[in-house]
Amino acid sequence: MKFLVTGGAGFIGSHLVHRLQSHAPVHVLDNLTTGRRDRLVGSGCRLFEGSILDRTLLAEAVQGVTHIFHLAAMVSVSESVAQPSACEQTNVEGTRQVLEAASKAGAKRFVLASSCAIYGNDPKTPKNESLPPAPASPYAESKLAGEKMCAASAVPAVALRFFNVYGPGQDPHGPYAAAIPSFFQSALSHTPITIHGDGKQTRDFVFVEDVTAALFHAALHPDLGGVYNVASGQSTSILQLAQKIISLTGSSSTITHTPERPGDVRFSSASIERIRATGWAPRTALEEGLTRLMPKN
Ligand SMILES: NC(=O)c1ccc[n+]([C@@H]2O[C@H](COP(=O)([O-])OP(=O)(O)OC[C@H]3O[C@@H](n4cnc5c(N)ncnc54)[C@H](O)[C@@H]3O)[C@@H](O)[C@H]2O)c1
Q1: Which end of the chain is more exposed for a tag (fewer CB within 10 A), N or C?
Q2: What is the pTM of this model?
Q3: Structural domains counted in the chain
Q4: C-beta pairs of 147-152 under 8 Å, 24+ apart in sequence
């Protein structure tokens, strides 16, 4: 076996690379836009620095690879609304090229990092994989296009629809930072926590180690195919999340509200029965995962 992780210097990708290293050699292809080289320290992987859109580099990175995890992407919904063509280029054309390279290299399996954004604002909950897709942003459209390419590919492929992933090493900075690291940063510095909209929007937060376990499971379990939700199966409102983090950190932060962001989904709650039936289950409850994010003195 040999693995390729595109986007392997990213938040989820780097956790995956560390998990894979004891099983077989790992190649990482990452252009370090949001990824960071220091996340790979001690992983023993070989880093190919550059874009998935660079066919020459991609052909080198995929050589001899048996299992491909395709995580490289423009990951922010807001950024995709602001820059739809760049999103299409990286997420749709990029996925096409990685799939083609996987096929040429004779890879045994391709696992795509897809997203719950595909369900959009369909009011039906919990979201299960049989619901018709209702993408509400260029990001969601691009992930749906990736899933369709996987379904039509010659390489056996699985798409995992991640819900809201959190864990150590997630970037709290920048306009597109995820809620948990940015709430922690505010709470620990006792500055106000900013919520987009009224905070009643719900999300299913899943711990990154559960997600890397699902990726590994999807790559090696011979019977998996098609699409699977990867989530905790529990939904939490953003307001509840902020309150939990304030209480856990003993913070004096207040909560402030800004307008809702375009493309943001209102209610997100996952059914995980499909992947559970194949032998994967989440192991980390939100309270435990949040506790593991507390700084050690
Ligand atoms: N974090 C979540 O909650 C979440 C939820 C649903 C889906 N996903 C998907 O999981 C994957 C990983 O997300 P993440 O949270 O780790 O984000 P991340 O931004 O930390 O990782 C993405 C990685 O892709 C790299 N990259 C971007 N464009 C590239 C290109 N053209 N060529 C090579 N590398 C490129 C970045 O440098 C980065 O290392 C993404 O596909 C994302 O859409 C994440």
Answers
A1: C
A2: 0.96
A3: 2
A4: 147/112, 147/114, 147/118, 147/227, 149/95, 149/96, 149/99, 150/99, 150/110, 150/112, 151/226
